[in-house]
Task: structure prediction
Amino acid sequence: MGETLAYLAGLVDGDGYFKVSRAYRTPGTVHPYYATTVGVSQLWPGEAVRVFAATFGGVVMDPKKISVGRLMARCELRGSKAESAARRLLPFLQLKREQAILLIEIGRLRPRRRLRVRERGAACVLMEGVRQALRSSHDGTRPTGKLVSSRLSLEGYQELTPEQLGWTREQLLSYLAGIIDSDGNLRIERKRVRGMIGPHYRINIRCGQVLPSRAVELLAKTFGGHVGLRRSRRPNCRDLATWSLYDRAAESAIRALLPYLVVKKTEALHLLELRWMKAQGKNGLTEWVHANRWQASVRMRKRCYTFEQIAEFERIFLRVQHMHSPDRRSFTTTSND
Result:
């Protein structure tokens, strides 16, 4: 169960959200009710969303259409289920740990039915402060001053590292698999070089998240590589922390993550298949005449991939490209019948 929670924490750090909403249930209500929500949203069919729902007792909602006709799978937990899920995910969260703490604090501060009106009003003032702090964290600005929580045991908890929290190697890889399934990308790059018989194919695993990102730093620390910076050119958009590996280094990372991937497992297998095929060697032979200014021209030869091998590389490349296309994840009623 620890590995599942670690994976879901990575998923929530990427595609999840913690939300506190305020509402007056009836027109005559004096004090508002503060509802807590933990949710995950991904492109349909949302295999990871189903794991989230099965683990915490939620239900996958009907898909909603977004831009370019793509559909989203979503699961939301509310009330006590949301607060229970936040407590269970808390030791494994890296990016949204503070948001989880604030949501749990709402559940602790929520007034009981038998409290007097004055006590209810004081509790609502505290909950409103927590709600505003949570909204500020969504915008990328940390709450000013001391953490809203009054529990001294949580002071500094959001700064603990995986080593300090006692993560196992399996839990670490499970968390990183959740990050790749949410904000990561597995692809094959095809590059045509002048003078080469066929295009050059290489595999790539990468991830990008808004700054600051402990998850991207954790990927670089675990598998190598460095954290880059991509400046945003759009107004009101934040800069991205990026991480990327190619070929041999990417293969090592994908093999380590493969047992824990849910959404991108098939893509990972395609990338490993391409690496295996290239490792079989070049079965072709090419010859050309090298002109020499002072002597007679020299006939040269070297190994190359055959047209049959290049056709297999292209087949895998197109298959991965198809998996990235909008039509691949579109929802049809016939698929559920």
Remarks:
- Residues 204 and 289 are 35 Å apart (CA to CA).
